[in-house]
Amino acid sequence: MALIVQKYGGTSVADPERMRAVADHVARTRRRGDDVVLVVSAMGSETDELLHLASQVSRRPPGRELDMLITAGDRKAAALVAMALADVGVDAVSFTGSQSGFITDTTHRNAKILEVRGDRLRAALAAGRVPVVGGAQGVSHETHDVTFLGRGGSDTTAVALAATLQADACELYTDVSGIFTADPRIVPDARRLQRLSFDELLEMTATGCPKPAMRAVEFARNHHVPLHIRSSFTWEPGTWATEEDPTMEQAIISAVTHDTSEAKVTVAGVPDKPGVAGQLFRALAERDVNVDMIVQNVSLEGTTDISFTVPREDLDAALEVSEALRPEVGASGVTADPDIARVSVVGAGMKTHPGVAATMFETLAAAGINIEMISTSAIRISCVVRGEAVDEAVQALHRAFELDRVVTS
Amino acid sequence: MALIVQKYGGTSVADPERMRAVADHVARTRRRGDDVVLVVSAMGSETDELLHLASQVSRRPPGRELDMLITAGDRKAAALVAMALADVGVDAVSFTGSQSGFITDTTHRNAKILEVRGDRLRAALAAGRVPVVGGAQGVSHETHDVTFLGRGGSDTTAVALAATLQADACELYTDVSGIFTADPRIVPDARRLQRLSFDELLEMTATGCPKPAMRAVEFARNHHVPLHIRSSFTWEPGTWATEEDPTMEQAIISAVTHDTSEAKVTVAGVPDKPGVAGQLFRALAERDVNVDMIVQNVSLEGTTDISFTVPREDLDAALEVSEALRPEVGASGVTADPDIARVSVVGAGMKTHPGVAATMFETLAAAGINIEMISTSAIRISCVVRGEAVDEAVQALHRAFELDRVVTS
To answer: Which residues on B lie below 8 Å from A73 (Cβ)?
Structure first.
């Protein structure tokens, strides 16, 4: 008998019909002999609707009140799913974040989990009941206020519960059937992966794969919680993310990801002396600008260009900060480019297979796509290209690395 | 400087515009120098919408889950109103029932308040903030579950808070401008009362006056909390309910009320011996049938007819219980009449003015309206009449007792 944490996202509980389908699936899981803990998100687009309401009553809603508001949506969904379960004969009980023991800091809208006290959930499980936990919520440790874990926080709730309760697996139910070798909207023959490593999934979510939430994947990796990303519409098995299995032959490249949400800033002609980059990125951090890629090229003339990418909505702030620092650091100019895209190849096998970078660059060159920035990690290579070239880049790379071919393992 | 508890019902916080109007009014109250504690209900018809959702996922939703669901609505409204207050420069902080210290029993859907721990609210007030409390909710004392105080529970929340915090007054804001001498939809020249006693208001709410919730009036009377029922649309002063002031000359009759939500059951030809009525009403109580009026006429033949009224939705259950008992108690028959109405006159002055009953009966007779049942209290006389006669009965009584004339006091 296993203990499974099942998380259902907003589309999986969007209306009463979907909730009843979830209840049937949980009943099936229980009949198989497994114990289940559920985590549910707010119904459909309710979180957005609540935020819209907030914007109608306040020009700058306080974070504490936004958290109180938003978490009402997940709580409502939890109560309804518990009712749907009762209706199919499964003894269920809903819990708020506070009731399920999520103690957080006081960073409203993006609270960090400090501790998970699983006592009430363990007691419910011992009594043969199915706990249904409202996702993405907790209670702050000193002020006892309601806190929200942020967008995608229900994934984090589920993984944290799986770790606390030492569950055998954490199933993340969503509206796609797993993790694909590329976005199927761009690459029609993209293949669903049966399995990948935490590190690979982490790199993928960091470079444009929209689900699951990166923070949850990081938590799963650190706490060794096997993740199963799967569909609540087909109920078929999806993609497992687990620790790397050294005995298994690895695919060199697992997937091609892309991200079109960023913009590029270049601070040009910076004197090549220590401290300049530190000064710039400290100032950006203080304005809460979320810097992603950073590339610096030293030129022969003793000056350097520093380029970095930021979420497009942070571009104005990034430009302001950079312009303000320009005289001080002696840069010759600051330019912005909102029309970029990043395309990445991710694969654990890359570590033992040289030549992946070369293949990537050759492939893009053969397609006539210019590379503007490059950054790499041990299992990922990313290139910044023109925005309009992104689909072609993804398709060409998917072909070049033969990702449409089924790998037997 | 006074401390005022202000309760805003669903229509008063139905949309962002109404919430902003509430925020402006609270800001005005604060500028006047008063401290304020707010209690808010769920927006508009949200409670009904949540119940409808529940009925779509479950044929018989568990009470605990319904409470978890319904209270999310009031909590959401509290967060939004707190934001609206912040937006007009009022430092506000929302609280759930649990956070504001409402400890209840575990009777889900209709929980009783056991204790109100006002510590967090007192601390917020001492810090110069306006607490905004989600209405009609608490936490159960042993199981720590979320509980719902029932329909109209926000009134009770407000009065209980006013008692706990020793507030100077409890203002109940609603979509009518106060308590009227009769329903203005039936009697166009019905007059708003400036003031009435708790006992009068209690009798009125017991006999068809829809607001405020009877339970809240009872609580206010027992804890000496002055109530002010007023409009959140005009913001004009409304009706005060206070303890009876013996120095004041009382109107004989304050208002005519009516209730068309009940049905009548008659158990006829019952042998007139002790214990029969006890047997019948015990059995009805065990089926949770809410019996209102009871009238028994002893006949000369040693048998008696017992008639009683129940909410129309309880009629089937009441008939079942009565029919089942009929052979046992030796009754000759059970009849149901769903088409009745009750019309009542209420007034504290009645105690010292004989002849009110006579005037009432004469007035109805003159209008050709037959009286089917009569019941009285010290300050109320109620008559059951045909359903179709109710408007005419109310109009005739309002005229007969000259309630359209302004009383100078």
So the answer is: 72
